[in-house]
Amino acid sequence: MVYDTVWDKINAYLVFLMPVLIIGVLLNVIKIPIIAMLIFFSFIFLCNNHEKSVVCALVFCKMIGTFGPALGIHLPGTVVAFFLILVFMRKELLLLFNKHTTKPLVFIFTIFFIFMVYYLLTGETKNSASKFSVMTISLVVDVVAFLILVTFSDIRMNRLTIPFLLFAMLQLGYVESFSGHRPSGILDFSFFRSACTEMMRKNIPVLSYHNMGISAFIAAAFMISQRKKINSYFDVVFLFTSFWLILLSGARQTIFGFIFLIFVWMVFRTGRFKLSTVFLASGVMIGIYLCLKLLDVPILQESSARGAHMGSDLNRNYDYPLMVISYHFLDGIGFGNYHNPHTQEIYPHNIILEILCEMGFVGFLFVVTVVVFFIRSHHFLLRNELPSGGICLLLWIPYLVRSMISGDVSENISLFISMFLLFYYRGIVLTSKQMERLRRLRHSPKIVYQRPLKEETSSATNE
């Protein structure tokens, strides 16, 4: 592996250190402050300003919102993250919004407008208002994050993904420290999920085990998107660390999502669709699944044993949403009126069912129509590449998986944002000359313009 700078070498060393850090966290040897210090170290020294802005939008915003209430600190994570983006990209931010981004923004705001109309017409509960505010905030921050990804070619996924892995590790350390439970070993894949459930029952500020798995999942997607093949120890260790954290999270959808990510990467990494590659990728998927079964991962055993009784599970009750759809087929029960956390109503864990329940067939038809118009565009390319060389489709998969975990329309506005910006971006890929000019502007001293004195002006005229 070629290292451009000494910081890239330090970044690689940090990746090789990750498995040791995970073992230290599981054994309660490495504490939360150490992981937090590493996050800020990687953020300050290992990332450039564009990468810092993406980390602020996708990691720091979630960190403040997750750990703030748990630690008794109430800060608006989104506001803080957006302020930092303004600091790091004060020169470039206006370049993100130009004539080339008109169509993506029209698509995104059309989806948002449909949700807004349904909220104004049908939102009746406090949960509706909170959902709409979350969706509005996500719209602003995530749009900026993805515009950065599709615009600047100096973004290196190797540097960008370290904070995601450390954030997942920070969540693991928090639950291990405050839950009162200890894992039975470094391969105890049921500990984290069980501890989170127990903390919820005791009304202890709890983290979602899904968020830990998704953080590691996004890290893996970002890294592998810039690879045509896995041919270095760095790649192997990185994928191993990501998958280990995903397994420790106990999130079934994320585990299967990771396997699906490997499948899609194998099929589309060369840009040529081959039937033989599909069969090979399918064999790899089956091999990974069988290896997990041999490891006796409890979550997979539980999932396969439940089988046809999925509808009786508290978190996977599909009978209730189907009943709601049958009674409110056309208009739905209203935006945000389906799931109410105060009454612990069951939600469907599926964005399609969620839209049908809350907005009915009419609202679902509006959303699907907008998406279909996008798919029909001749710019729709599954192998579309980012300026940094990353495969767009791979970066979109974690958001697709996340939408099937939560089933929450408000949080999944990111799914539609990433869909268009990653598949239909027409951003301004800055050239090396433009980047150099921006660097000179950033480091140049401010020039104060002074008007000439009248005497000097008049004397110059006489001469």
Strand content: under 5%
Radius of gyration: 24 Å
Mean pLDDT: 77
Find the count of extended strands (DSSP E, 2+ residues): 0
* SSE pattern, N- to C-terminal: HHHHHHHHHHHHHHHHHHHHH
Q: In which range does the helix fraction lie? A: 55-70%
Counting H and I runs of at least 4 residues, what is the number of helices?
A: 21
Largest sheet: none
Task: Categorize the overall geometry.
Answer: globular
Structural class: mainly alpha
Number of domains: 1
For this entry, give a set of tags:
463 residues; 21 helices; 67% helix; 0% strand
Task: Tell me what the structure shows.
The protein has about 475 residues and is an all-alpha fold. The chain has one domain (about 15-255, about 315-430). The protein has 21 helices and no strands. The chain has helices spanning about 5-25, 30-45, 50-70, 75-90, 95, 100-120, 125-150, 155-160, 160-180, 190-200, 210-225, 235-250, 250-270, 275-295, 300-305, 320-325, 350-375, 390-405, 415-425, 430-445, 455-460. Helix 16 (about 320-325) packs across helix 17. The longest helix has 25 residues, at about 350-375. It is globular and about 60 Å long.
Strand and helix map with partners:
Layout: H1 6-26, H2 32-46, H3 49-70, H4 77-88, H5 93-96, H6 102-122, H7 126-149, H8 157-160, H9 162-178, H10 191-201, H11 209-224, H12 233-249, H13 252-268, H14 275-294, H15 298-306, H16 319-327, H17 351-375, H18 392-406, H19 413-423, H20 432-443, H21 454-462
Helix pairs in contact: 1-2, 1-9, 1-12, 2-9, 3-4, 3-7, 6-7, 6-17, 6-19, 7-19, 9-11, 9-12, 11-12, 11-13, 11-18, 13-14, 13-18, 16-17, 18-19
